[in-house]
Write a structure and sequence with these properties.
Elements: H1 5-12, H2 16-24, E1 32-33, E2 39-40, H3 43-57, H4 62-73, H5 79-120, H6 124-128, H7 136-145
Helix pairs in contact: 1-2, 5-7
Length: 149
């Protein structure tokens, strides 16, 4: 089954211009076209575009994604290099998740802090709490951030 660029864009929830850009940049080397030149996408293209989206969201540039595509065109000779690329992206995403988790912990702490201060009508008592006096979920946050709220 073939999909038009509009249909594929809808499936992927991206603008049509993104798919045209990817094609123009050479990220879709196996994309078929009709006799009139219309782009024809397949389920395999959908899978490929999901990988491109993952690589892009994980921090790779278009140039780096092109390099990955060049590796895939080498066939089995590049399997180890491609595996290493995905391992590196996985490590980068794991680091980003940790950073986001730390950020979320701080945001949760600050929400609790202001909720408590508002309920008491002042920050004084909340500010004076030592880490050991804080509710359990917020103790490590204050210690890690070495914060004076």
């Amino acid at each position: 089954m073939f999909y038009t660029v509009s249909e594929m864009a809808r499936l992927l929830e991206v603008p049509v211009s993104t798919l045209r850009y990817y094609d123009n940049e050479g990220l879709l080397p196996n994309l078929e076209r009709s006799k009139s030149g219309t782009r024809l996408f397949t389920e395999r293209d959908y899978e490929w575009l999901k990988v491109i989206d993952c690589l892009k969201k994980s921090g790779l540039s278009i140039k780096e994604i092109k390099a990955f595509i060049a590796l895939t065109e080498q066939g089995d000779d590049s399997l180890s290099e491609r595996r290493e690329l995905f391992r590196a992206r996985r490590s980068a995403v794991e680091q980003k998740i940790k950073e986001l988790s730390d950020m979320m912990a701080l945001l949760n702490f600050k929400c609790w802090y202001y909720d408590t201060a508002i309920a008491e009508g002042t920050e004084e008592r909340v500010r004076a709490l030592s880490p050991d006096e804080l509710p359990e979920p917020y103790r490590d946050v204050k210690r890690k951030m070495n914060m004076d709220v």
